[in-house]
């Protein structure tokens, strides 16, 4: 679709919001410069990432580029309010901006969040707007109520902005394929950002979500294709999955994947990226990076030549769901 670049490859900026460890401004700029020089034109961010820090950093970089040359995806659903007390300790993000995130999926909250994000980035518009995390993992027993507010409030607001020509596409950003599927059925969406749920490790979304997307013309942005580290780590037994220590069954599966990839001379992360892009429902893949080296590595993996025999071996070993798509068949 027109709101994705030809490369269908982008950079996510959670890491640039000091996720897990701080990054200095020079390294952030160098990371983004390497991505841009390598042809990346899709960038995803959110107020939640560093509580405004990733938005500010990305905006500082993108304001030096012609606005028509890039596509930016942002999110609503969390308002940033001035912090009146000590920084939170139960967060992925370190050395954040002096705000606290507060869930707000209302119509007015989404509109205000949109305007606040424009100010933090210093940009004149966003291309894709996603409703961020209206899922069970974040809201527990309140999720049905929260989801209803998000569809009736935030989704309505973003659809109005799309109809006014202010943005190009509306969607949901979630780690839960069930939430994405329900949102597509209940709202007029163009895309969803699905993180970690359609990967070489996990393809449950292929059974019903992906066919629904193909049927309705909804293109997915697939994030978390390394499952938060497990498919990119040099030390798989001690890597993370879903931002937690990886369980034994996932470690075993990742080691099997790595062994088959090695047999074909292919880095596992390259297979992870290209597998996700192969599905007809995939509009783009976004990966995180925190340095020039990581940006350049991701670009090499995106362009890596992969022999068809690798995919055939993964199928033969039962590592891919029957509904999954592989590059040789796409």
Walkthrough of the structure:
It holds the Pfam family Aldo_ket_red. InterPro entries: AKR, NAD(P)_OxRdtase_dom_sf, NADP_OxRdtase_dom. The protein has 330 residues and is an alpha/beta fold. It has a single domain (9-329), classed as Alpha-Beta Barrel (TIM Barrel), CATH 3.20.20.100. Helix content is 39%, strand content 17%. It has eleven helices and twelve strands. The strands form three sheets. An eight-stranded parallel beta barrel has the order 1-2-3-6-7-8-9-12, surrounded by five helices. Strands 4-5 form a two-stranded antiparallel ribbon. α2 links the parallel β2 and β3 (71-76). α3 crosses α5 (143-163). The protein is globular.
Topology:
Elements: E1 9-12, H1 25-37, E2 42-44, H2 53-62, E3 71-76, E4 78-82, E5 99-103, H3 107-121, E6 128-132, H4 136-139, H5 143-163, E7 169-174, H6 177-186, E8 191-195, H7 209-216, E9 219-223, E10 240-241, E11 244-245, H8 248-263, H9 268-278, E12 282-288, H10 292-303, H11 308-316
Parallel strand pairs: 1-2, 1-12, 2-3, 3-6, 6-7, 7-8, 8-9, 9-12
Antiparallel strand pairs: 4-5, 10-11
Helix pairs in contact: 1-10, 3-5, 9-10
């Amino acid at each position: 679709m027109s709101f994705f670049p030809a490369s269908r490859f982008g950079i996510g900026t959670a890491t640039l919001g000091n996720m897990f460890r701080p990054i200095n401004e020079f390294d952030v700029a160098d990371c983004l410069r390497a991505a841009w020089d390598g042809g990346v034109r899709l960038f995803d961010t959110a107020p939640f990432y560093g509580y405004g820090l990733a938005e500010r950093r990305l905006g500082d970089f993108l304001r030096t580029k012609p606005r028509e040359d890039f596509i930016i995806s942002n999110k609503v659903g969390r308002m940033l309010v001035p912090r009146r007390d000590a920084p939170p300790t139960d967060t992925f993000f370190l050395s954040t901006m002096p705000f606290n995130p507060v869930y707000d999926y209302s119509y007015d909250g989404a509109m205000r969040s949109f305007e606040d994000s424009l100010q933090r980035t210093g940009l004149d518009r966003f291309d894709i707007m996603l409703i961020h995390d209206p899922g069970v993992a974040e809201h527990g027993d309140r999720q049905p109520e929260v989801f209803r507010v998000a569809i009736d409030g935030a989704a309505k607001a973003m659809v109005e902005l799309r109809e006014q020509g202010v943005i190009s596409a509306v969607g949901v950003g979630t780690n839960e394929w069930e939430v994405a599927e329900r949102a597509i059925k209940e709202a007029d969406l163009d895309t969803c950002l699905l993180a970690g749920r359609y990967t070489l490790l996990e393809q449950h979304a292929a059974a019903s979500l992906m066919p629904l997307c193909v049927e309705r013309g909804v293109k997915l942005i697939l994030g978390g294709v390394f499952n938060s580290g497990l498919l990119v780590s040099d030390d798989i037994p001690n890597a993370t999955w879903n931002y937690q220590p990886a369980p034994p069954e996932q470690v075993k599966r990742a080691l099997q994947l790595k062994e088959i990839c090695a047999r074909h001379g292919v880095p596992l992360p390259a297979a992870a990226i290209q597998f996700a892009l192969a599905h007809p429902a995939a509009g783009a893949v976004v990966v995180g990076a925190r340095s020039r080296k990581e940006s350049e590595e991701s670009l090499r993996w995106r362009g890596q030549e992969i022999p068809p025999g690798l995919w055939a071996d993964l199928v033969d070993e039962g590592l891919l769901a029957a509904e999954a798509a592989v590059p040789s068949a796409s």
